[in-house]
Design goal:
The chain has a single domain, classed as Jelly Rolls, CATH 2.60.120. Helices cover 24% and strands 23% of the residues. It is built from six helices and twelve strands. It is globular and about 60 Å long. It binds 2-oxoglutaric acid and fe (ii) ion. 2-oxoglutaric acid (AKG) binds next to strand 3, strand 9 and strand 10.
Length: 261
């Protein structure tokens, strides 16, 4: 877990000239994209974060798009992404059991997507003026966050922001929007944000989620006449398109999917 943070720091320490070949303002540019804040060209408020995001699965189809400088980047991130994926799939198996879903429910197309977001929060001269990331829920199924040893993450509980203190060698596991829907609201997506800090912070978020064309709906075995579905049926691709526009406006991206009772 430490190695990826070291290599990620080496990447962000490279000269701008070297990093800029990954820079893109196009939110649909998925393969391997470096950007600053969230949607710098369109957003009204900027956030104190640089971000390198790439697809991790299937590894052999995507690793060639990842940085090759630092020289160890592909090796270290490749090994890490395989291990994190295995851990994530194990956690999904346990969640499946806990929800009482049939074994293997999350296997295949519901966990085919796997992205990694390498977040670099530079030292901020006045952390009271800016956030690292605004309030959001992650759109996928689950997140495994390696948050290093610098605090900054906060989670919303009972309308209060609670700091999630870093624990050595531990992941923060977030329930994402798709898991809330599949579980028909039994599991709640964790809303979180990042506060800026006057020391540099590096984190690596691994997201496991559905492929774009998968139809998402509450699991059939979790709904009944007495427990009707709370959410409409939609494709993950459609959801991501509205998520990208709703979240920066502070709109809850799940709201338009709710079935009104
Ligand atoms: O950097 C963090 O602590 C959280 C990052 C995050 O929420 C994200 O990448 O979606
Ligand atoms: Fe997040």
């Amino acid at each position: 877990m430490k190695d990826v943070l070291v290599v990620a720091t080496e990447f962000f320490d490279l000269p701008v000239e070297e990093k800029k070949r990954f820079y893109s303002e196009d939110p649909h540019d998925q393969g391997c994209r470096l950007k600053t804040s969230i949607d710098f060209a369109r957003e009204k408020v900027h956030f104190w974060r640089d971000n390198l995001r790439h697809i991790c699965h299937p590894l052999e189809e995507h690793i060639q798009q990842w940085p090759d400088n630092p020289a160890r980047y592909r090796e270290v991130f490749g090994l890490y992404s395989v291990e994190v994926r295995n851990l994530g799939l194990r956690i999904l198996d346990l969640i499946c059991e806990g929800l009482g879903l049939e074994a293997g429910y999350f296997e295949g197309e519901l966990s085919q997507g796997h992205f990694m977001s390498v977040n670099h929060y530079p030292p901020c001269p006045d952390p009271t003026l800016v956030l690292g990331l605004p309030k959001h829920g992650d759109p996928f199924t689950i997140t495994l966050l390696n948050q290093g040893d610098v605090p900054g993450l906060q989670v919303l509980k009972d309308d209060q922001w609670i700091a999630v203190e870093p624990l050595p060698n531990a992941f923060v596991v977030n329930i994402n929007h798709m898991l809330q829907i599949i579980s028909n609201g039994k599991l709640k997506s964790a809303y979180h944000r990042v506060v800026a800090s006057n020391v540099a912070r590096m984190t690596i978020a691994s997201f496991i989620g559905p492929s774009m064309d998968v139809v998402i709906q509450p699991a059939k075995s979790l709904v009944s006449e007495s427990n009707p579905p709370l959410y409409k049926c939609f494709t993950f691709g459609d959801f991501t398109r509205t998520y990208i526009t709703d979240t920066p406006k502070g709109k809850d991206p799940l709201e338009h999917l709710m079935i009104q009772s």
